[in-house]
């Protein structure tokens, strides 16, 4: 979700207006992903580094996210979307917001349509450190630690490897996002700013991804699915 | 559910499964009658003062309900040894309660007239309950039941002289007390108007505050109105209780409806099962708790939806700047929370000896202590109270306020508290083995060992036990086994 600030600057609006405009894109992308059969969608809403932004902007974001979560909770439930929140560990997160996150996760826990993971106060390195801590706490012998076992100690161990990462507004960095899971991900960097990003842009990204030749470090297989 | 008996009072024993009292045990009307009886008890100035000072029923009503229920059961047990032991326990418990009310009049829970009045209200409420639900008791049954209740009083007091021997004289006695002695006491008002409006959720429903509050908002005033309408007219007039149109009909309808459950197959409604289920705490390892988990999950989801759909008050616009309350860390509670949930057992906003006595009482009840262990436990708590008072009561009013507590938390873990932990350990360690085994642990906490406890070979050593107790009492750590014991409603 990059480009909210620039989107607002281009229109001589306060940065907060950009965040507000992002709401429409979020809903649009969720709908487009669900309609095109995506089973796992993750949105990077707030990173552990975002706490460095000005206090007023952070406070605004917290209130905005709370409003958006509450506003769209019935829609997410009705659409069969399972919502969960990755991160959410910092004590600076208002208690009411954390409660709303919990409520939405509880409410949609049995949905089976699409899993929407909202990375909020998320850092990929922190997750890996947490997994290491958890391994040590469980007193696992060093020889037994495998990639598979390690992944089981990450938050939400059922999350599969990420296939495609879309980073809007032309930024080309990883920025500490789900570091473990993006090992073999394809990356797409559309130029559109997040508030301008819409369902057709999302579908275009999916299309780009389908034409990619995913080799996972090996040689191309003889038949590469329906798109070969 | 039969209310008529065959045979004479001589043929069947007064106690045991055949008694009139036991016949009402699983009757839902009995719940309404018990509330009514409690109000009439609380309206007695002596009992009202004792309740207001010592009772935990406002803050921990469910625990109190369970204890009262089990105690009544034992008092009507078929085995005389059980009855006698329970009577001794109640006498010891009541002997520890005395003081003076807000107007300086002395009260004593051992007062003969007051204790006779308690038994009288129970009997009268049972009779009234049958009248109100349209199934009045026959003269024989009523006399037999009166004999049972007098025997109940005799078991407590040694004799039943404080209640008239003949049932005809009883009604004169009852009317006289209602007319002359009952007052509009604080305790009666609390039961009628505060208890139901603020009734905390039982342990079972603790995770669903929204649902509980919604249900309570509906049921609370209803129960209040039903109880008021069922009180004797002279008392309603004296206490200035409202006469609401339709309340009498509502009350009789409630009793009538509850009475219809007699047509249900026997065993469908079992008061003990209901009370035990309500007292289950969610993380207990009782098999019934597991069967409740599925239901709880559904209710939790319902509660989450309600919370999310509830419109935000005021700060719904992200542009406005609301004041964000400071968030408390996980696993620790704030000093105020600890004070309210654990220390202030009577819910009067102050920490006083009755609060600590209530803790000792709950622990002694759980462990089913006899003398002299019970006195040792009380003495340890009394020593702790003196230590607390000396350390915390800065304004010298004899009790500790929440503020005084919050400013002086670190001094809470003094030697007297460690002594309490040690005495509690000895009392829990029934076989004197120096460790607490799984059974002894279950007696105290009603749940099995948790795996995160410092246990060795499935036992719990003295130092670990003392350490745990101290960290709960002074470190204010939550999620310990002590939470359901002392913090649950």
From TrEMBL, chain B:
Pfam families: EF-hand_5, MPAB_Lcp_cat. InterPro entries: EF-hand-dom_pair, EF_Hand_1_Ca_BS, EF_hand_dom, MPAB/Lcp_cat_dom. GO terms for molecular function: calcium ion binding; oxidoreductase activity. Residues 311-333 are annotated as: Disordered. Residues 390-415, 416-451 form the EF-hand domain. PANTHER family: BLR2777 PROTEIN, ER-BOUND OXYGENASE MPAB_MPAB'_RUBBER OXYGENASE CATALYTIC DOMAIN-CONTAINING PROTEIN. This is EF-hand domain-containing protein. It comes from Streptomyces microflavus. The lineage of its organism: Bacteria, Bacillati, Actinomycetota, Actinomycetes, Kitasatosporales.
């Amino acid at each position: 979700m990059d480009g909210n600030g620039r989107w607002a600057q281009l229109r001589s609006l306060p940065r907060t207006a950009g965040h507000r405009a992002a709401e429409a894109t979020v809903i649009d992308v969720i709908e487009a992903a669900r309609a095109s059969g995506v089973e796992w969608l993750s949105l990077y809403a707030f990173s552990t580094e975002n706490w460095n932004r000005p206090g007023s902007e952070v406070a605004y974001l917290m209130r905005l996210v709370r409003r958006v979560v509450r506003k769209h909770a019935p829609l997410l439930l009705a659409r069969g979307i399972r919502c969960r929140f990755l991160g959410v560990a910092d004590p600076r997160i208002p208690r009411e917001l954390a409660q709303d996150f919990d409520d939405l996760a509880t409410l949609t826990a049995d949905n089976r349509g699409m899993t929407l993971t909202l990375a909020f106060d998320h850092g990929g390195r922190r997750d890996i450190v947490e997994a290491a801590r958890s391994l040590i706490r469980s007193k696992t012998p060093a020889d037994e630690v495998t990639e598979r076992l390690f992944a089981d100690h990450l938050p939400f161990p059922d999350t599969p490897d990420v296939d495609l990462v879309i980073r809007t507004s032309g930024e080309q960095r990883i920025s500490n996002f789900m570091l473990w899971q993006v090992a073999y991900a394809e990356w797409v960097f559309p130029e559109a700013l997040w508030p301008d990003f819409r369902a057709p842009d999302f579908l275009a990204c999916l299309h780009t991804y389908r034409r990619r030749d995913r080799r996972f470090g090996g040689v191309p297989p003889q038949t590469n699915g329906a798109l070969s | 559910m039969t209310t008529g008996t065959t045979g004479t009072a001589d043929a069947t024993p007064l106690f045991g499964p055949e008694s009139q009292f036991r016949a009402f045990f699983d009757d839902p009307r009995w719940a309404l009658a018990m509330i009514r009886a409690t109000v009439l008890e609380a309206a007695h100035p002596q009992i009202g003062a004792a309740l207001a000072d010592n009772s935990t029923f406002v803050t921990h009503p469910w625990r109190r309900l369970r204890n009262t229920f089990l105690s009544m059961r034992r008092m009507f047990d078929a085995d005389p040894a059980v009855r006698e032991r329970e009577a001794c326990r109640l006498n010891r418990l009541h002997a520890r309660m005395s003081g003076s009310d807000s107007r300086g009049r002395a009260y004593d829970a051992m007062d003969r007239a007051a204790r006779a009045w308690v038994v009288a209200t129970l009997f009268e409420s049972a009779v009234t309950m049958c009248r109100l639900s349209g199934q009045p008791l026959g003269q024989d049954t009523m006399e037999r039941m009166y004999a049972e209740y007098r025997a109940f009083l005799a078991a407590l007091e040694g004799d039943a002289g404080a209640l008239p021997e003949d049932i005809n004289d009883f009604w004169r006695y009852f009317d006289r007390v209602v007319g002359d002695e009952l007052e509009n006491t604080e305790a009666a008002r609390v039961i009628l108007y505060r208890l139901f409006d603020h009734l905390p959720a039982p342990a079972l429903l603790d995770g669903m505050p929204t649902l509980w509050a919604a249900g309570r908002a509906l049921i609370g005033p209803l129960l209040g109105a039903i109880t008021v309408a069922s009180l004797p007219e002279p008392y309603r007039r004296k206490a200035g209780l409202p006469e609401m149109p339709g309340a009498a009909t509502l009350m009789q309808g409630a009793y009538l409806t509850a009475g219809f459950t007699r047509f249900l197959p026997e065993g469908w409604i079992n008061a003990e099962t209901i009370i035990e289920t309500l007292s289950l705490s969610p993380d207990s390892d009782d098999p019934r708790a597991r069967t409740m988990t599925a239901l709880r999950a559904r209710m939790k989801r319902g509660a989450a939806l309600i919370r999310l759909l509830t419109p935000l008050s005021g700060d719904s616009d992200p542009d406005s700047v609301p004041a964000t309350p400071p968030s408390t860390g996980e696993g620790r509670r704030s000093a105020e929370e600890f004070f309210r949930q654990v220390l202030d057992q009577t819910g009067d906003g102050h920490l006083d000896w009755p609060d600590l006595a209530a803790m000792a009482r709950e622990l002694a009840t759980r462990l089913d202590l006899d003398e002299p262990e019970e006195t040792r436990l009380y003495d340890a708590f009394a020593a702790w109270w003196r230590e607390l008072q000396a350390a915390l009561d800065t304004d010298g009013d004899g009790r500790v306020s929440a503020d005084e507590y919050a400013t002086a938390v670190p001094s809470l873990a003094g030697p007297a508290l460690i002594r309490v932990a040690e005495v509690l350990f000895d009392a829990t360690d029934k076989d004197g083995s120096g460790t607490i085994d799984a059974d002894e642990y279950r007696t105290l906490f009603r749940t099995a060992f948790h795996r995160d406890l410092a246990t060795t070979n499935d036992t719990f050593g003295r130092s670990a036990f003392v350490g745990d107790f101290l960290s709960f009492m002074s470190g204010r750590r939550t999620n310990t086994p002590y939470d359901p014991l002392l913090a649950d409603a």
